[in-house]
Amino acid sequence: MLKGRHLIEPGDLSVSEIDEICSLAEQMNVDPGAFQDVCRGKILATLFFEPSTRTRLSFEAAMLHLGGAVEGFADASYTSSTKGETLADTIRVVSSYVDVIAMRTPKEGAALLASKYSDCPVINAGDGGHSHPTQTLTDLVTIRRLLGGFENLTVGFCGDLKFGRTVHSLTQALSRYKGNTFVFVSPKELCVPDYLIKNVLEPRNVDYTICEKMEDVISSFDVLYMTRVQKERFFNEQDYIRLKDSYILNKEKMRLAKKHMIVLHPLPRVNEIAPEVDDDPRAAYFKQVKFGMYARMALISKVTGCL
User: Fold this and answer.
1) Residues 65, 104, 130, 244: which is the catalytic one?
2) What digits encode the pLDDT tens for the residues 183-197?
């Protein structure tokens, strides 16, 4: 049972619970009208202490499609946190008004802290460089819809793998399924963090490769997960400028890839995927956005006990 549960990181869900949410999301995609009133009377609070377009609107659209209501904020400057109110007090107040909270913050661990003071389920919508579990559900729903499952895949991650919370979360989730292999493509400065290797992949005997050149490995991928080099994660602007154009996916690189490979991206993109790739049938990042709404619909309906 997921009713009343918090979702702070992908590991909070068992493999069977992930499969259950993905199956429900697929049903909602096929027949959204059948679910339009399941959360009527429920309220979602979207507390976004960090800018967001897709994630916030996806959560809000998800709840509205389920027949529920939404309140919250998209800019922390309009909240009492500017007066010094603690996160704990904010959560105590908000959770007394609503049935579920979706929260994004630049501070790692803030979502976990919020869950300790909330009277309703807290869904982590991204906390710094730590975790983004609903993006992971989005990615998993997309992979399952387009490739048929989560096993025996070669998954390439490219770009900012050091600070990319979406990369960390999806790696943790897919490493729990059989036969998956990971290839991490990045500049040395943005290499996948050691904790993912030492604490996640190696204990599970998962095969992985670390390299710097996409052209050398793209032909093996079933999934290519592109990420942007995030300016806001750099302490030094010169380093950002030097690295931001390091890895750009274009038609030339796509010619080296499998016909069935899919390209995912958590968005927003800057220039790491050339617009010429958008017309390639393997470009799945805009489908991914829509699947994300259904993933969040499924999750919200489960944690609120509506389904």
Assistant:
1) 104
2) 999 988 889 999 999
